[in-house]
Amino acid sequence: MDTSPASQPTSITQPKDPPTEIRPPVVLPPDPKISFSTALIGTTSTCNTINTSTVVARQTTHNRKPVVIFKASDYYGVMAENCKWTLVRKFTMGRPKIETIRAKFIEQIPLKGKVRIGAYDYKHDFIEFNNETDLNTPYFQRFMGIYGALLRMFKWSPDFNPNEETSLAPIWILLPELPFHMFKWEYLKQVLEQIGTPMKEDIATIARTRSHMAKVRVEVDLMKSLPDSVFIGIEGDTTRLKGKDQKLEYEGVPTFCKTCKLYGHDYERCKVEARKREQARANQETKNAEKKEDEARTNIAGEIGIKVTEGTQTHIENQKDDGFIQVKNKRNRKKKTFQAESSNVNNNETKKVVLNQLQPPHDQTTLKNRNTQAT
């Protein structure tokens, strides 16, 4: 008699443990004995992991020194991509201890991932995130305080210079009376693409609860001018281009000096520009004074030249047609004959001296011949 399957004992098969190579990692909570800052930092870099084997530098020498040259596309592209989620914080009056900064940062900023905080110098530190959301949370604030120490936050770039501050800053751009169907993020990004880098719209724009205006946070370059409008056009296969100017309003634009590349003052209040303007004013005053002196010298020389010319003309008017100067003898005519002859001789000598002074050098030979004939 066959036994029914129901009467057979039921066997329970236990699931086997997964193979070791595919066992999911076990995440343990931080050891309570480990400091909070150590747990925050972790042991591995949070920069994006990308393939850097394609970056090959050119090795050469210059002035007997080794030189390594990278391609610009690699330096600003692949190599910078590895740490694109990095913030630079600048402390106004000096940086506190790095342990204090690490402990205080997590209390002020809620994070979804890991973060690394490292000191750069006595005024700067670097914060590396492993996701863009955590990066934008403090970046949108721009300012922060730690135990009374005020700091500003900037986005890191390959051209980072501790003596300058980056001109990139996140601001709000308002689009009043934007067509309601363009409130979608895909359309807003294209409208503001030439103004800067669109980052995020506000909650009212997402929910469409403020239908008369859209508001988008955009990262702009403060070294460039901000346009007051953008033209939104419509064209078809059989219709001509038409459209309208969309007005742009800006909110939260920080004061940035384009000369010294620092925040907190503009061109009009820049001390560097003030020194330049003062130097230019002093140089202009010096030029004006030199010009007046030159004009005074010219006027004096002109007056002297007129007097000399008038004196010369007086002598020339007294000349006869043959080139000699007429000299009138005002002596007493009753004097003896030999005194008159002596006077004539002296007059001839005087004529020669005067003519030598008035005649140009190339006429000296002709004058001598005339004097010889006259004698």
From TrEMBL:
This is DUF4283 domain-containing protein. Residues 1-24, 327-375 are annotated as: Disordered. Pfam families: DUF4283. It comes from Nicotiana tabacum (Common tobacco). The gene is LOC107774214. InterPro entries: At4g02000-like, DUF4283. Residues 272-299 form a coiled coil. Residues 80-164 form the DUF4283 domain. Residues 1-14, 339-348, 356-375 have a biased composition (Polar residues). Keywords: Coiled coil. Residues 328-337 have a biased composition (Basic residues). The keyword Coiled coil applies.
